[in-house]
Amino acid sequence: MLSTSRLSTLTKQSLMRKSASFVKAYSSSPDLKATLESVIPARKEAFLKVKKELSDKKLGDITVGSVIGGMRGNKSLYWQSSVLDANEGIRFHNHTIAETQEFLPKSKHELSGKDAGLSEFLPESMFWYLLTGEKPTQEQIDNFSVELAEKGDLPPYILQILDNLPATLHPMSQLSIAITALNHESTFAKAYQRGIPKSEYWQYTFDDSINLIAKLPALVGKIYQNTYHAGKVGKGEFLGAINKDRDWSYNMASLLGLNNSADSVNINGMSNDRSKDFVNLIRLYCALHGDHEGGNVSAHATHLVGSALSDPYLSYSAGIQGLAGPLHGLAAQEVVRFVTTMYESLGSPKATEFKSSKIQEYLWSILNSGRVIPGYGHAVLRKPDPRFTAMLKFGLARESIAEDPLFQLVHKLSQVAPGVLTEHGKTKNPFPNVDSGSGVLFYHYGVKETLFFTVIFGASRALGPLNQLVWDRILGLPIERPKSVDLAGLMA
Ligand SMILES: CC(=O)SCCNC(=O)CCNC(=O)[C@H](O)C(C)(C)COP(=O)(O)OP(=O)(O)OC[C@H]1O[C@@H](n2cnc3c(N)ncnc32)[C@H](O)[C@@H]1OP(=O)(O)O
Ligand SMILES: O=C([O-])CC(=O)C(=O)O
């Protein structure tokens, strides 16, 4: 049960934080915009050289098969921050997941002591790195986390819009509506109307992108509260407050009401250790899911809409709408529904009693009914997704998760399903993708509302597409307009 005194203390703290002027840890190290500015000349020069000298070179042939087959294999998009290798998985500026986990800054609150070992790298570190290609210092990230927290509050009209949506509206639709409406804040849209030179576009695109990323924890928290916990706190209120001395993921956990601290209602009564682990799950999940080169639906949609000079809010809300499809980000929700239903249908056994033959039988029943196995297959990858492996490792490193039967079923499934899918013979990649293991981890920490999982994916995915959108404007990339072909054209 929530104590009223806890709630009123939280509300007071929230108000206090809003009115107090937070003392920034000022430093001599350049901030993100200055760092970006310093790397622009060299990268722009290299880009212009490629444009001038290599524009006529061929990168491959476009086949009829790819025109009618989802453009598979066409190298036709420019994306700077990450490249996906079919066998190895994603690399961020040529570094693997494990490498970035190692060198990107973590929370300043968990650099030493017993929490240090399990502390994960921060999504804001990943964004800095994606955007600049430079490894930020701890001090730069500490300051950047403060900047995001300071810009994190939602304007009253967004609260009003969200409060007026039916709680039955899918959380992803709520997120895309809120992000679209935030375009009311767009400095880019206003500057464009005023009339600015093209060389200045990126500055406003950058400012809007930072502002949008900063507001995502509050959007995620507000949608969670309105949709599932409306009775817990009053209309217009939150399940937690933004703490300006804490990182983006910590604040997201607080605003979800899932943090054992004075900053949050702690709706599930999590212990201190469990709550710290949950914050680390958000950090890992969001840093890992941020960027997956340019061709995935959410990244490509953001890039496409942005190419018409739609502002970052409009562009990313298009990305969110693509992420909400079951073949893309919504698979995170579908996997949990799938795994929980399978678990029940197997008779809710203990993990030691899982029988491969029963799991195989279940998988065949899905395949034979013409459905896909969610969380398996990929348009580019041909090996198990290293992001899935990293999430699995997170779970296996924590006793309470490692012993959770649903988590164990996900683990077991990753060993059994590839054989079944191979025998089925359709999918080009029978291995688990990123969505295979993430939802069940959130489920473990008490986020059991399956329709909600992709909203957290939506907060994370902002990092890659928005970083590229800033570069699209720096480099002056044109409106995207491929040529389409009709059947007669294909036959000819
Ligand atoms: C964050 C992400 O977006 S990760 C992906 C999340 N999506 C999922 O997990 C949903 C399940 N997976 C899929 O539907 C697919 O594997 C996709 C959408 C990810 C990739 O699609 P494609 O590139 O078209 O895959 P592929 O070329 O292997 O498809 C060939 C056939 O195998 C089928 N297939 C692919 N994956 C699966 C699967 N998991 N279960 C059953 N059948 C599958 C396809 O539906 C297709 O059938 P069809 O010929 O009857 O149309
Ligand atoms: O790359 C893709 O097409 C899908 C994917 O895994 C992602 O967007 O994270």
How many helix segments? 23
Q: What's the helix-strand series?
A: HHHEEHHHHHHHHHHHHHHHHHHHH
- By CATH reckoning, the class of the domain at 147-328 and 456-475 would read Mainly Alpha
Indicate the mean pLDDT: 93
Helix coverage percent of residues? 55-70%
Give the N-terminus to C-terminus distance in angstroms: 70 Å
The CATH superfamily of the domain at 147-328 and 456-475 is identified as Citrate Synthase, domain 1
Radius of gyration (CA) equals 23 Å
Beta content comes to: under 5%
- Unreliable runs: 1-9, 11-26
Number of strands: 2
Biggest sheet strand order reads 1-2
Structural class: mainly alpha
Which shape, going by the Cα principal axes? globular
CATH topology of the domain at 147-328 and 456-475: Citrate Synthase, domain 1
Q: Bound small molecules, which ones? A: acetyl coenzyme *A, oxaloacetate ion
Main sheet: strands, sense, barrel: 2 strands, antiparallel
Main location: mitochondrion
Pfam family, one: Citrate_synt
GO cellular component, one term: mitochondrial matrix
Keywords: Mitochondrion, Transferase, Transit peptide
